[in-house]
Structure formats: C-alpha cells, structure tokens
Amino acid sequence: MAYGKAHPATGLTIGVVLELEGPPPDRPQLDASLRPVAELLGTGPSDGGPWTGADGNAEAAPERGLTDVAHEALARPLEPHRWSCSTVAGLPGGTSALVWRADHRLLDGAGVVGVLAAWTGALGADALVPGAHGPGAHGPGAATASPARAEPWRARGALHRAVTDPLRAAWLCGTPLLERRRGSAAEADGGPSATLSYACAETDLGLLRGIARRHGTTVNDVYLAALSGALRAQPQLHGPDGQMRALVPVNVRGPGDAAVLRNRHIPLRIPLPVAEPDAGRRLALVAARTAGRARALRHPLVRAVFRSVPAVAGGWCFERYFDPGRATLLASNVRGPSSPLVVAGRRVLRILPLNFLPAGHRLSTVLATAQGRAVAGFTTTEPRSAAESFAAAWLEELRVLATAGPWGRVQAAGADATASPAASAR
Predict the structure, then answer these.
(1) Which of 68, 170, 178, 309 is least surrounded by Cβ atoms within 10 Å, i.e. has the fewest?
(2) Any residues with CB less than 8 A from the CB of 341 and at least 6 apart, and which?
(3) 190-208 pLDDT per residue, tens
(4) Measuring CA to CA, which residue among 34, 30, 196, 195 is closest to residue 116?
C-alpha cells in the first residue's frame, strides 16, 4: 500500500486472461461463477467490497487475438483495492475470453492461483502450496542432484539448517536494505504513467521439466537461465553497472497460511549471468545462485520477523527491494492447477498471465504453468514489437538448452530430437 501511494502513476494490476471454448458466459452465469472468488477474498458487491461483478463486455475486432486482449487489459486503469472481470467475444476459432484483473495490494501471484482454483473448482489440487511462487516453485521432484545444485549443508542435517537458514535469510533480506539507494528522484515522484506493452511465449511444460531433469536443476532455474540468454543482447535493460539482477518473489506462506490470498512473499534478488556465452553454463550458474535460498526465506523465524515489521518500515523495505538501480527485472513464477479447468461450464483452453511493472523498471516477466502448459508473459515500456522479440528470444533459448548437455556440453546431433519444442511465440 505504501508503494502504491509513493508511485500513484504506477499500475499495480495483476491477473489472468482465460481463453474459453465457445461464446462467453452471460452476465448472470459469470456473476454466479465468481461468487466463490468473492467469498475467498471476503468481499462482494453487496458489502461495499472491491468486486463490481463483470465490468464490461466487448466484441473482438477482426484479427484480434488473445494476446491483444491481454495487451489491452494492462492499458486499462484499475482502481486501487479492486478486482474485476470482463468478457470478450468473437475471438478467432469461435472462442472467447475472460479478463480477471486485481490490484496487487489485494493479493500476490500465489493468491491469483487460489482465485483461479476457486473459480474453476480446482481447490483440491495445487493451489497456494508453499513453493507455488518463486524459486523451487515446481518442487524438488522436478530435478535430480547435480554439481550445479549441490547444497553441502543438507548432509549436515536439520539442526545445521535450523541455524544456517535464518542467517542466510537475514543476509538475503538485509543486504538490499543496507545498500545505498540508486533510484533517481524522477522515478519516485509519481510522474506520468508509461504506456505498457505485452507479449507472451507459450510452450509445453514438459519441455522445461525435461531440461531441468537433464541438468539437475528446477523449472524456475530453466526459466531464469532462458531469460538470461534472451536478454544478453539487450544492454539497455541492464542496470547502471552493466549487471542484470532479477527480483524473484518467493511465496513464504506457512502451514497456517494455505488459504491466505493477501500478499505473503519476499522478493529474492538473483544476479543473472547475462555475460556468460554458454547456455548450459548459464543454467548452472543460475542454479548455483538459487540453491537453498527459497527454503531459507520460508523458515518459520523469517515469517515471524516479517509479520512483526511495522507498516511504515514495510513500505521502506519495499522501496529498497524494488530500487531500479539495484534490481532491473521482476521475474515471477506462479504454478497453477495441473488439472483441466472449467469456468461457467466452458472449458479453459489457454491461460495468459498479467504482471505489473514496478516504478522505474522497463521489463517484468511472469512464468505461469497450468494444464501442462508454460506461458511466459512480458510486460515492458518498450514498443510491443520489442516485447514480442523478448518472447521469441526466450523460446529460442529453451531450444538451445534442450540440446545442450550439463555445463554446456552439446549433445550429439539428433540425440535429443524428441525434446525439440513444439512452441510458438504469440
């Protein structure tokens, strides 16, 4: 909330765009389907809460696709502390879309997963589990042990981790707070809002999981390594010192927070190896830099400390974490339900994630995985053609990683023919 007040021109909109089979539901059907969401958020149209029901219906223009709908959704202002849903009819192939948007002050990415699960009736599956946001979001089962992910303290037992994890978390959280702020005053004065562009890249989740298994890493590491490669040729997006540091929100919900939709995350800063020319080596470096960090931030002591931080201090911390002179890329990772999804009796065909752009930043990304698909969404102040170029470059990096052996050893030609991605940038 303090961040929103300090940057009134910065949109804090997050959400999802759902492509539905057939025409969109009518207003009564949509409102009925959204009642579990209102109950989950504890708000509804009758109690003065942030929900206004369906906030509009539109007919798609010729040649207007789902990414166009997402692009336009980020351009529309959303009032603070509110969430809404609109419909779009007449998309190519006779499909339709639902655009669900919310102010980030109401909930975080893992909270959006909870909303999606309640809305589609998938509450029993993957919603709001610890690890559904940020490093390790696809769990230790997505990777096997490797030198790149070696964590020697694991062999020393839980007692050792009970001591080292809080110390490591204190270092991870405290270092950004103690550094001298680099962001300029112009970035904090609440000037005119920038025009945002949106593009996305879509592929099979099995591709990322296959790369993670072969390299002994996680899906989140693959996502960040592909970002590192895609942004190597984009020096204008690097920090003032030529480096690129990603802010990766880590879901820190504990056992008692499973149903909490409010913000429960700590941003983790990960230096991206954009200068490393070898794709396999980039992935190994990313894995080494993320290893054990999310686990440390989820330590119960860390949660207890952050819950005791006064609101005024929390706002100051948030400003430090999102200082555009220290962190140049917001890179979220949200795991959605793996089961088929249905809204208002209509099958969900595709899901596109919407991510906000912090003040002073030029690019933010979000990886959303659901129904066996992985979609990377790119929000930027660059022209839309540049956003589409980022998306295509990210997919190309996945193709490179699919044929690169651990630590950059290239497989024999044809050895990984089955791993070639049937992917497309849209």
Answers:
(1) 178
(2) 18, 116, 120, 122, 347, 348, 351, 370, 371
(3) 445 678 999 999 999 999 9
(4) 34
Segment holding 197, helix H or strand E = strand 197-204
Continuous segment of H or E residues that includes residue 79: none
Backbone φ, ψ for residue 423 (5° rounding): -120, 165
**Token pair recorded at residue 388:** 């589409």
Query: Into how many domains does the chain fold?
Result: 1
Strand pairing report for 346-354 and 13-20: antiparallel
CB-count burial class (<10 Å; 0-12, 13-18, 19+) for 326: buried
**Is residue 206 situated within a structural domain?**
yes
- Tokens read off for 91: 């998309």
Q: What is the pLDDT of residues 28-41, one digit of tens each?
A: 899 899 988 888 87
Residue 202 within a domain? yes
d(CA 126, CA 337): 5
- Assign residue 296 the CATH number of its domain: 3.30.559.30
Orientation of helix 205-215 relative to helix 384-403, angle to 10°: 50
Q: What share of the chain is helix, strand, coil (3-state, %, to 5)?
A: 40, 25, 35
Tell me, yes or no, whether 284 lies in a domain: yes
Q: What is the pLDDT of residue 182?
A: 58
Q: pLDDT at residue 414 above 50?
A: no
State the DSSP string of 151-178: -GGGGGHHHHHHHHHHHHHHHHHHHHHH
Q: What is the pLDDT of residues 244-259, one digit of tens each?
A: 889 998 887 776 665 5
Structural domain range at position 236: 166-177+193-334+356-405
**Run of H or E including 10:** none
DSSP character at residue 374 = E
The neighbouring-strand residues paired with 370 are 373
Burial of 195: CB neighbours in 10 Å, binned 0-12, 13-18, 19+: exposed
Q: Which amino acid is at 346?
A: R
Query: Does residue 264 form part of some domain?
Result: yes
- Token pair recorded at residue 175: 């270092």
